[in-house]
Amino acid sequence: MLLLRNLKPFFRRKSHYSFGILSRATTLPGEITSEFHEICCGRTFWSSTSSCNEMIGLSSSNSRNPFFFHNVAEFCTLLGQEKADELLDNAAATSGSDRGKEAKYTTREMVDFTQIHINKLPRVLIMGRPNVGKSALFNRLIRRREALVYNTPTDHVTRDIREGVAKLGNLRFKVLDSAGIEAEASSGSVLSRTAEMTGNVLSKTQLALLLVDARDGVLPMDLDVGKWLRKNAPGMKTIVVMNKAESLDDCDGTLASAAGEAYRLGFGDPIALSAETGLGMAELHETLRPLLEEYVLQNNLCADEEVQDNDSSSEDMECKLPLQLAIVGRPNVGKSTLLNTILQEDRVLVGPEAGLTRDSIRAEFQYEGRTIYLVDTAGWLERTKQQEKGPASLSIMQSRKHLMRAHVIVLVLDAEEIANTRRSMKHVEVVIARRAVEEGRGLVVIVNKMDLLRGKENYKLYKSVTEAVPQEIQTVIPQVTGIPVVFVSALEGKSQIAVMNQVIETYEKWCLRLPTARLNRWLCKVMSRHSWKDQAAQPKIKYFTQVKARPPTFIAFMSGKTQLSDTDLRFLTRSLKEDFDLGGIPVRILQRTVEGNSRTSTSSKNKQSANRMMERVVSDKRTILAVENSSTT
């Protein structure tokens, strides 16, 4: 029985409580009756037998087979009988001489993964047939709900390669979530293209986690995935993971039966875990740790990181902060193709099918020395009854979440559809643009598929589209003037420089800060050229200052009760954007009233406080005199 207090459940992270002995009988073996082990977070301490017996309520009869709990890299796990016997033998050997000292059994960390640069971390790919819990394990490892998880046996939710940094105890590595593999998929289909993309990623990874469903056992499709893996990555180190094993028990033989079937894959000992509940993550940690440490030591990644840290300066890091960029738009307008063009690689799946992207894919890249996080979102659709449930609703919610996190939003339009409908933006696109403006984000409009309007027969149509789109956008979104519009063809792969230059320019405007002296000089010129209807009722701005950036926010301190009207605010906003070149970003102007008699009010307050001090002093003197008179009498 286990009678220690504050014992956390198994497989909980960051446990800092003590663990004791779980005994099947009453006392410890006679040869070590003088001492016993109490294990606390990987360390062994000493305690007397009497206190042990009092703590766990043991009698004088003999007992056998004690069990120990041990902390393994911030995970709690049950030690096997061999390890428990080893601890007991060490206790018997060192009972007299090493009392009070720390035992030799400790968890030694060979590599500190937190000191390795994120781009040099080892890569681990999660793969398997569809609907075995790959995305759930991905979310468990990165400790966030980033990948979409939905029970769809007949459909594939994940289609692109998603990447994140896994935090498993003291381990850090890059984990990749892949689409479900079907080896018998027809050529040219979506499944065959996702399998081809997974094969390309395999060449850049060091380990693979092959997931199977422990409840269903090893199916023929799992065997096909194993054959496909051996064919595409012959030397890949593969670990078989039996997911959804929370309902299996070793007592009734269900766990042993599932493990026996997993051996048919031919990749060694399987690991039973549950990505939903976190069961078995300690065993996964102990399996991955020696493999990852070996890779890090062989490639000398820690030494490279130290050199890199010495060369880098803090000033450069502060000057170029990471930029969050989100690509949004309706389905099948070329968002994924534009992302591949910007990254100059086939990062996400593209094709003629509408709604091909479901997950919001986040990619990191460097452009002109600046770190940029680029997010490709799923296509925005108008809400219908069919989309209120299922993967489509999750995709829309995820797209809205990334729109809120972004600094600059790229709204992609279809040039061919604009030419056919004679309309630049539909209702969904107007909603996206207005929401971006309301949230205070920078906005860049990209008109894609311009290659379809080239040629002599489409010359007039091409010219009319390039002239009409900026004017119509300004009419639909009057809150922001000067929204930049870029006409590109992402399929040709030549639009990276034009798009990124406009994004960087918009981001720098979004982060702009203007000094107060320059703003007040500008204010005097602007107020003099503005035509006021009534000079007597003209609002008086005492001074004008910027209080924050991202987006630029200004405050006009007014003297008197007269406030700026909506027309005056629009005039100041338009003048700010024209004079300081702030087009394409929202500008906010707030008003504050400054009291004119602030000095007289402060002087009156000082007089009141001085009078109160005089009263206190007088009262103290009176009490002192009263006491002296009473003493003399």
TrEMBL record:
Limits of the G domain: 123-244, 325-449
GO molecular function, one term: GTP binding
Polar residues bias spans: 594-611
Region (Disordered): 594-613
Ranges for domain GTPase Der C-terminal KH-domain-like: 513-592
Keywords tagged on the record: GTP-binding, Nucleotide-binding, Repeat, Ribosome biogenesis
Entry's Gene Ontology BP terms: ribosome biogenesis
Classification via InterPro entries: GTP-bd, GTPase_Der, KH_dom-like, KH_dom-like_a/b, P-loop_NTPase, Small_GTP-bd
Family: Belongs to the TRAFAC class TrmE-Era-EngA-EngB-Septin-like GTPase superfamily. EngA (Der) GTPase family.
HAMAP family assigned: GTPase_Der
PANTHER family noted in UniProt: GTPASE DER
Stored NCBIfam families: GTPase_EngA, small_GTP
Protein name (record): GTPase Der
